[in-house]
Write a structure and sequence with these properties.
single chain, mainly alpha, 15 helices, elongated
């Protein structure tokens, strides 16, 4: 078993704590913005919500649906690989501080039954997704993503260094270097995930759980013509705000482009691109302002092309209610005249 000096333990502790602090800072920043949204999250029909999370997160039903079955299966291999690597990661860092959670015999057994098979399957999964993303280049995925490329490299490196460590291929300084490389990649995820679409790894189970059952989920606008001028002004200002559900959608988007693929307006040659016009175009304005008053950032011409068919919402694998045509129409007619 590798031995670690006090200096190494301090360096590792500072690195991990910095990464965790960075991750939590960006996560809480987004949640703070989400909570500024109007309306509250609903947790009614709890059993149905739990079943939905099991179906869409664990069983990956939406991810493997439609014309993306092969990509969905590859994605599932990566996800399940990370689930099995949870205990391995805890044990990995526990070793450095002298508190491993695995005995040597259990560690070996876990490696044979879970670790090795899923390290290989996870590697196959991410390489397949990388090939699709950077060689096949489906139009729906959009432009080149440096973070996706980096995540692919990270995952392959993570699985490779794990296999090298467990198979005892190296010894001495080379073995220690391999251990630190593995640790560095894990820590690197803490800095990378919050700044990219990969935040969906954390947010999508919650988004799917909290998603309203009613589609579309547009509340009626309570216009009281007898109200005071101040009350009417506040009502009009409120039209530019997203709901909490909609704000969470923005930060959960995985940028897969399924919504755009099925959009009849887009397929008919229109300019509407739900992935951008209803989701991604609102992300930076929300982060820059720290608020949810972004309905006026939606492209009006694109918004009026929307047929409100809900095809985009139906195919979203992370639980987003994508369509926001009613919001932009109400805002334009009532607030802008």
């Amino acid at each position: 078993m590798l031995q670690f000096s006090i200096v190494e333990q301090v360096i590792l502790a500072v690195f991990l704590l910095s990464g965790i602090a960075f991750f939590l800072h960006h996560l809480l920043l987004r949640l703070k913005i989400v909570l500024k949204g109007k309306s509250d999250f609903s947790v009614d029909e709890l059993p149905k919500r739990i079943v939905r999370v099991f179906d869409e997160v664990i069983l990956h039903k939406k991810v493997v649906s439609g014309n993306r079955k092969s990509a969905g299966i590859l994605h599932a291999l990566v996800m399940y690989g990370f689930i099995f690597f949870g205990l391995i990661t805890i044990n990995h860092f526990g070793m450095a501080f002298g508190f491993p959670i695995f005995s040597e015999s259990f560690r070996h057994t876990y490696f044979l039954i879970f670790g090795a098979p899923w390290a290989i399957l996870c590697t196959i999964g991410i390489l397949g997704l990388a090939y699709r993303r950077f060689v096949i280049k489906p139009e729906a995925l959009g432009k080149f993503s440096s973070t996706s490329a980096l995540v692919s490299v990270f995952i392959v490196t993570l699985m490779t260094t794990y296999l090298i460590d467990e198979l005892h291929i190296l010894s001495g300084a080379a073995e220690k270097f391999n251990w630190w490389l593995h640790s560095g990649v894990i820590g690197g995820f803490l800095f990378l995930i919050p700044q990219s679409k990969h935040m969906h790894l954390v947010l999508s189970p919650f988004n799917i759980f909290l998603r309203p059952f009613e589609v579309p989920n547009h509340g009626a606008i309570p216009i009281d013509m007898e109200a005071s001028e101040e009350e009417l002004d506040n009502l009009l200002l409120d039209l530019s705000r997203l709901s909490k559900d909609q704000a969470l959608d923005i930060f959960t988007c995985v940028e897969c482009g399924r919504c755009t693929e099925v959009c009849p307006a887009n397929r008919g040659g229109g300019i509407l691109d739900p992935k951008y016009h209803f989701i991604l175009d609102l992300k930076n304005p929300m982060l820059e302002s720290g608020d949810v008053n972004v309905v006026d950032k939606i492209n009006v011409e694109a918004g009026w092309e929307c047929t409100t068919c809900q095809a985009c919402t139906e195919v979203c694998p992370v639980g987003n209610h994508v369509e926001k045509a009613d919001e932009i129409r109400s805002f334009q007619v009532l607030a802008e005249g």
